[in-house]
Known about the structure:
Blueprint: H1 5-13, H2 19-24, H3 30-34, E1 39-41, E2 46-48, E3 51-60, H4 71-74, E4 80-88, H5 91-114, H6 121-139, E5 144-155, H7 158-173, E6 178-181, H8 186-192, E7 205-208, H9 209-213, E8 229-234, E9 240-243, E10 255-258, H10 265-278, E11 282-287, H11 293-298, E12 302-305, H12 334-350, H13 359-375, H14 392-402, H15 408-413, H16 418-424, E13 436-440, H17 449-466, E14 471-475, H18 479-482, H19 485-497, E15 503-509, H20 512-516, H21 519-526, E16 530-534, H22 541-548, H23 552-560, E17 565-570, E18 573-578, H24 583-589, H25 593-603
Helix pairs in contact: 5-6, 10-24, 12-13, 12-17, 12-19, 13-14, 17-19, 19-21
Amino acid sequence: xxxxxxxxxxxxxxxxxxxxxxxxxxxxxxxxxxxxxxxxxxxxxxxxxxxxxxxxxxxxxxxxxxxxxxxxxxxxxxxxxxxxxxxxxxxxxxxxxxxxxxxxxxxxxxxxxxxxxxxxxxxxxxxxxxxxxxxxxxxxxxxxxxxxxxxxxxxxxxxxxxxxxxxxxxxxxxxxxxxxxxxxxxxxxxxxxxxxxxxxxxxxxxxxxxxxxxxxxxxxxxxxxxxxxxxxxxxxxxxxxxxxxxxxxxxxxxxxxxxxxxxxxxxxxxxxxxxxxxxxxxxxxxxxxxxxxxxxxxxxxxxxxxxxxxxxxxxxxxxxxxxxxxxxxxxxxxxxxxxxxxxxxxxxxxxxxxxxxxxxxxxxxxxxxxxxxxxxxxxxxxxxxxxxxxxxxxxxxxxxxxxxxxxxxxxxxxxxxxxxxxxxxxxxxxxxxxxxxxxxxxxxxxxxxxxxxxxxxxxxxxxxxxxxxxxxxxxxxxxxxxxxxxxxxxxxxxxxxxxxxxxxxxxxxxxxxxxxxxxxxxxxxxxxxxxxxxxxxxxxxxxxxxxxxxxxxxxxxxxxxxxxxxxxxxxxxxxxxxxxxxxxxxxxxxxxxxxxxxxxxxxx
Length: 604
């Protein structure tokens, strides 16, 4: 029996899904990944997957602004998207409209003058603005853009959005600007804030090139890298400040720290030292006040005390180990380098305070130093550099034999005989074997500390030349070394050449005026990629403001900031920093007597 024709035709119209179509239903598309599970739009917010957001449009623009005037919004400490739409307009059309507007304004001015009425201030200002803009457009100095700025705030609920909206309105209100929520248009506002770059709200304002450029966020107070030292928290937006001093983007690892007494500069340096050790960076400290003893003991570091009763000594006549390199970048031999370094050290020892040795005195010392090395069998031949180095007392003997008329031998005697001879004229017993080394010079007299600091820095320089690896050398109270011309020159040279030896030099001082009074101080500053400015005194804030080109707000911040706060300057950023430490780091870094007394009681 044959089936009806309609049945056959109906069967032919039914198409079974192909195997490839069924397989495609199981694929994940871009829409599956990006599309939200649910979205709800109300009068004043739109909710996507339980996260509410509100779109604000900039409607009132300030008349006078400065570059990056939207910076406070960029650093807003709440989640926010900022969308800036710029559409260039045809210059010819704009010039014709401006000309027509000038005719209208001029006609109004003529009618006022004919009627004997006082000219309107608003009309006069508008006439000047339109005329100035038209002239700039005709010269090609400016263009006109149709501009729109939208802010999308995020929150868990409408109450959080209301609070964030009030804060944004307060920030912009202080700059004579204003925003309005896109009421009943939240979905178009949401689409206007997406990376597609489409403006569905069309809340536009015509701006010239100069005005539009001030809205572009060229900079932000965020500084964080993938791997580096955690220096603290941003005061304004609570972001982390992470910087790698030995990173590829850093010119060098040098740093200067300027702060008044009690501002927390030693605390910040101790926290930095603990975190540098975690990254495998050796940390060396010249400590004039015995502030790093507890920290050194806690991390298993090495304490080197230089005093009349200490068994640890540094011989300045030591030469780098054989194989460390025959010449420096200027072509000088190792022996010539050591003689020049000794000239600087002896200049600190023998010159009058604040003065340098004369050329004749330097000539006598140069001859005496070579004779001293020659008496120990050491010459320019690197094969002789493994022999025992001479001592300072050997140089004294050579000077006495020369019968020189400058009295150098008499001035050097105090560093060889008596208790000082035990400090400066003994074979080296100190080494840099451990990752954390502290050179303690507290027990030395005030006048001898610059000599000891020079001696230690020179010893460290020899070690980093022999065995380069990431190291940081902190020179506390560096202003005392800068008081002598030789010490200032040595520190400036070290700052210039430290990068080639994988060394970062950190100079810490509270006497900003003395430090920057010499050209060498400015050299050290110019060769430091990082500057940390903590609380300043009103007597020095003017110099600091001029040197670092600070704004009025930054000046006020440095005058009134709390202990542990400061400005962190790196890679062109000026960041208001708050040094934050864990409980253990704080216990090891604090120098507050009220906190140290209970710790000593528990240890006892």
